[in-house]
Amino acid sequence: QVQLVESGGGLVQPGGSLRLSCAASGSIYSINAMGWYRQAPGKQRELVAQITKGGITNYADSVKGRFTISRDNAKNTVYLQMNSLKPEDTVAYYCRAEIVAEIGGGRYGYLEVWGQGTLVTVSS
Fold first, then answer.
1. Sign of the four-CA dihedral 14, 7, 76, 106
2. Cα 2 from Cα 25, distance rounded (Å)
3. What is the pLDDT of residues 20-75, one digit of tens each?
4. E strands, the chain, where?
5. 40, 81, 43, 45: which is closest to 63 by C-alpha?
6. HSE (CB half, 13 Å, CA atoms) of 3?
7. Three-class DSSP category at 75
8. With contact defined as beta carbons under 8 Å apart, do 83 and 34 qualify?
9. pLDDT bucket at 1, cuts 50 / 70 / 90
10. Is residue 85 within 8 Å of residue 17, measured between CB atoms?
């Protein structure tokens, strides 16, 4: 079974920094795009940042210049470095990955996998 495990959330003061990590595990053949999304209560989940297997990145306008996404393909891990955090960044963050993995019977399939979420709280 393929899963994503996130870590690194917590409480930070405005202007501070946090680094989120998301590691994929299981019978993985390859991982295409990986990304971070966030969702406030009662609102739709929105893209924060995404990175392709080749390292091409895409950011939401609200985080450009403050957040940096990166990945370690050898470790099947994606990171989100968050600097200059603001109270409005307070929300649950979710990792997402497009994974080609074994699905049983010696077959491989394309999976969209989500992490369980990690809460980031920016408050003084």
1. negative
2. 6
3. 999 999 999 999 999 999 999 899 999 999 999 999 999 999 999 999 999 999 99
4. 3-7, 10-12, 18-25, 28-39, 46-51, 57-59, 67-72, 77-82, 91-104, 107-114, 118-122
5. 81
6. 5
7. helix
8. no
9. confident
10. yes
